[in-house]
Write a structure and sequence with these properties.
The structure is a single chain. The protein is mainly alpha-helical. The protein has a domain of 51 residues. Helices cover 53% and strands 0% of the residues. The protein contains three helices and no strands. Helix 2 runs antiparallel to helix 3. One of its GO terms (biological process) is mitochondrial respiratory chain complex IV assembly. Keywords: Disulfide bond, Mitochondrion. This is Cytochrome c oxidase-assembly factor COX23, mitochondrial.
Length: 97
């Protein structure tokens, strides 16, 4: 997937769902990859937001205060992912009992 560099063409609010991160942590692809990974492997569905945070730090000479927005976007993405995983686990455990 090519990276869009024209800011006017980037829209993180498609379908009326506002989000502040470029990743799609609820995408079925991430769920499938997470389910098929080995138990000791780490999988991050918010890798793009993570990369953006690190790139911001590099661009700003590791001044964390200049990258707070990127950090928050990564946290929001991870929260979205964690909520979805908890909901799926809760739904699976409650439907099996």
């Amino acid at each position: 997937m090519p990276i869009e560099r024209d800011k006017s063409k980037v829209d993180f609010t498609k379908d009326g769902n506002y989000k502040f991160f470029p990743d799609e942590p609820l995408d079925k692809l991430h769920a499938d990859k997470f389910a098929s990974k080995e138990p000791s492997q780490f999988y991050d569905p918010c890798a793009e937001a993570s990369k953006m945070s690190l790139n911001c730090l590099e661009r700003n000479n590791y001044d964390k205060s200049a990258c707070l927005t990127y950090f928050q976007a990564y946290r929001d993405c991870k929260k979205t992912w964690q909520r979805a995983r908890k909901a799926a686990a809760y739904g699976a455990s409650s439907s099996s009992s």
